[in-house]
Structures are given as structure tokens and as C-alpha cells.
Amino acid sequence: MKKVLFTYKFEDGKMEEKISLLENLGYEVYFENEATFQYKSYMREIEALMCYSPFESLDIDDFPSLKWIQLTSMGFEQIPVDKVLERRIIVTNNRGGYSIPMGEWVVLNILELIKNRKKAYENQSNKRWFMDFSVGEIYSKKISFIGTGDIAKESVKRLSGFGTQILGVNTNGRSIEGFDKCFSIDKLDYVLSISDVVVICLPHTKKTEHIFNKERLEKMKKDAYLINVSRGAVVSEEDLVEHLDEGNFKGVALDVFEEEPLSKKSRLWDYHRVVITSHNSWISEMIPERRWNLFYENLKRYINKEELLNVVEIKKGY
């Protein structure tokens, strides 16, 4: 029997059923709480670790049999990268597991910004009857996704009936189903200059950190809309605040930030045309089911010595 450790429990009332399924695959199943994690002797024989981030209290040197880490997240910055690379531990993430609700969040915020819904909510709270002639429509708008991975793809599916022009930017300009046209990353400035809405879906790597800086923000239309649903560090918040102060952008929607939680002192809270959510775009009632389906499939593949899904290329950063 191979030993697998989960650092969270199944929350759907099917704990015994799921443990039985894993045991039938050939696993001995253990559970610990990430928040109160303490080393126990059985952990020396753990081969597979299903977790988010127990690494502050967990030293993987105490897990000499560990061969595979399956993360509940898409990002993997929480793992001890050097030790994982040194020991050639396989890391898989939850890529795609959150893309549907995140795609819905993107479409929601495009509509909310262009329809000026924030003002409508304020009018309702103040019982103020006000016909707002500033609202627009997304029909015929150029909506560009910087990064054409799963989040962008799910967003594009949900925009397909709106009559928009969908552009994408990826490493080499390869065509992606659902996009009207894709460009290579060296055409980023051009794409920004023609876009009505820019949606950032980039991973955080050394190359993408602060890729949206003052110089790049200035390439965008003055009345454009900016949405970031990827990682906070790809946008320089200092430069974004300065850009907003200069009267640029009709609307901005941010779900991720350079430091989280976002400080109450941040200027970003103060702009009427900025919508802030608390890294909440990925959440839905379907998350536990999708997570279980991925984990079960990968556990089945692992024990059958088959290729795992969502293997992370650590040196590439995604």
C-alpha cells in the first residue's frame, strides 16, 4: 500500500466513501490539518502529499519517501523550490480547476465596468433615481487577453455571444480556439494600443513581474478598461495609481494584489472607477468536486505509473 497524506478533509459528507475509493486503488490514507501541522513518524513513508501550503511547518527533508506533491492551487510559489528540484519531486497543480468561475468573474466585471454598475448600486443605496447616460456596451469592443491559458479560454467561451473581437497574446502568437487573432508577446505594446478592454491572465515569473509598469500602461487607450485576474505582481501598483491619478482608464477591476490582504492604506480603495475583490474570483460551490476529480484521477495514474495531469515546469515558472 502506498501512503498518501491529505492536509485538508473532504467537505461534502462523503469522507468514508472517498477514503474507500482510494483504498481500493491501493492507498493508505492519512489526514492532517495544515494550520496545526506537526511531524509524526508515519510521514517518513508518505509518497504523495495532497496540500495547499503546509510548508511553513513542514520540512520535506522529514519526508524521505516523498515523490509527488499535488497542490490545490494553480500557483506553486509556496513550495520549497530548491529542495523539490534537488530531490526531483514531481509537482502537479490544480490548473483548470478554478478557470470556470474565474472566467465568469472576468465577464461579470467587463459588464459591470462598461455598464457603470457601481454607480447604479450607489444610487439604489441612496434611493436616488438617476438615468445614467455614461453606460456603454461591449458589442464590437476589442477585448484582449494577455495570456491565453485556461482562464482566458473559459472567459472567451462566455464572451462568444456578445459580438466582441477577441484578441490574445501568448509566447509565440500561436492560434487558440475561440480567439479571433493571437499575437506573440513582442507585439504586446501594439495589442494594448488597440484594445478597449485588457484582461491580464499571466503567471507570475521573473519575466512577467511588473510587466504592466508605467511605460506599458501608457501604451493603452486613455479610456480603456483594465482587468487583472492572474497575479498581483504582474502590475506595478505604484505605477497604476499614478496612471489613475492622471485621469486614465474608464474602469479597472482587480482581484489580485502585490501584497494580500490589500493594505487599508492603499490608494486603490479610493477610486470610484476601480472595483476591488479579495482574491475571490476562483471561489464557487463546484470547487470541491472539481478538486476531488483531479486528485482522484492523478492518484489513479500515479499508482498505475501513468503520466500525471498538470505537471508543473518549475524552472519555467508555470
UniProtKB/TrEMBL annotation:
One of its GO terms (molecular function) is oxidoreductase activity, acting on the CH-OH group of donors, NAD or NADP as acceptor. Its EC number is 1.1.1.-. The keyword Ribosomal protein does not apply. Keywords: NAD, Oxidoreductase. The keyword Oxidoreductase applies. It is an enzyme of class 1 (oxidoreductase). Residues 110-280 form the D-isomer specific 2-hydroxyacid dehydrogenase NAD-binding domain. Residues 16-312 form the D-isomer specific 2-hydroxyacid dehydrogenase catalytic domain. CDD domains: PGDH_1. Belongs to the D-isomer specific 2-hydroxyacid dehydrogenase family. This is D-2-hydroxyacid dehydrogenase Ddh. It comes from Clostridium cylindrosporum DSM 605. The gene is ddh.
